[in-house]
Amino acid sequence: MTSTLAVVGLDAADYELARRWDCENVLLDDHREMETFSYSYDQPYTPEVWTTVATGVHPRDHGVHGDAAEWDSLPLRVASKLTQHLHPEVRQRLGQPFRDRGHEQEIDRTEAPSAFDSGAAMGWPGITDAEHLSEAWSWASEIKFGELTESQLRRNVYGNTGEEFGFLVGMNGVVPIAGVHSHVLDVVGHVFAKRESKLREFYERVDELLGVVRRETDEMVVLSDHGMKVSWVDEGEVGVHSDRAMVAATEGVTGELPESVFDVKAWLEANTDADDADDRDVTMDTAEQRLEELGYIE
To answer: CA 217 to CA 232: how far, in whole Å?
Structure first.
């Protein structure tokens, strides 16, 4: 069986808050604060940083930066470019009617090599389809304009988190490295930046779910792209991204923990076993006629 490194891209997991609330499965056996960066905006921007985490290169080189989401319609893509100067909340509001009609935004993807090329990834911005990230952005807009209740928010974020963490459990023993991006703490960090007990509840629930991943995978890494400024820690504006990114690992992960998001790719690759996947074409033992009768093939 393949030994698997499970990598959790836990968006906005704030190093200060994880330590304050003793989140043992976020912090794992070894942990440290990690240097992040801002490029297109005055705070770390999710698609830019996560693509850098996976590729090890600057947004200028991997190409995912600025308005990194493309609509599935040419007129909407043109309109998006024309409204780039507007505030993000206004742009979210303008785009919501089109999302309600089924239109989608897809996060740009890089062609640069990534740490997951020898394995599998789910929802990782800049690397794979990032539908959950786009959904989270739309929830933020709905919350802003009073269109989402707290109970609906809980169902939404925990439903996606369950899918994301379950992916890592399913990939254990199948691929040498598996990565997933989870936006739960970013969404609730923006929402509850002035309500400590509420935000702590989400951190503790996510920590509990990460415990399942920890028990069911060989080795595990938790990364964040930034933290979140909150009223009980920070002065000035809250509910915006902090620079308190972090990295944590179980004891079997070797080497010094990376100091910067730019160092993560090389460190992950040093901890990824060679892929011994069976690349032979798969064959079917069921008669083709039976498959046609069942509707599997035409």
So the answer is: 35
pLDDT of residue 243: 96
Q: Does residue 93 belong to any structural domain of this protein?
A: no
Residues of the domain holding 140: 5-68+108-276
In a domain, 135, yes or no: yes
Question: Stretch 132-156: mean pLDDT, rounded?
Answer: 89
CATH classification of the domain holding 145: 3.40.720.10
Buried b (16+ CB within 10 A) or exposed e, 257-281: bbeebbbbbebbbebbeeeeeeeee
CA 178 to chain centre: 12
Q: Nearest-CA neighbor of 198 among 213, 212, 208, 187?
A: 187
Q: What is the domain count for the chain?
A: 1
Would the pLDDT of 105 be above 90?
Answer: no
DSSP symbol at 261: G
Query: Is 287 domain-assigned?
Result: no
Confidence of residue 178 (pLDDT cuts 50, 70, 90): very high
pLDDT in tens, 251-282: 999 999 999 999 999 999 999 987 766 677 88
270 assigned to some structural domain: yes
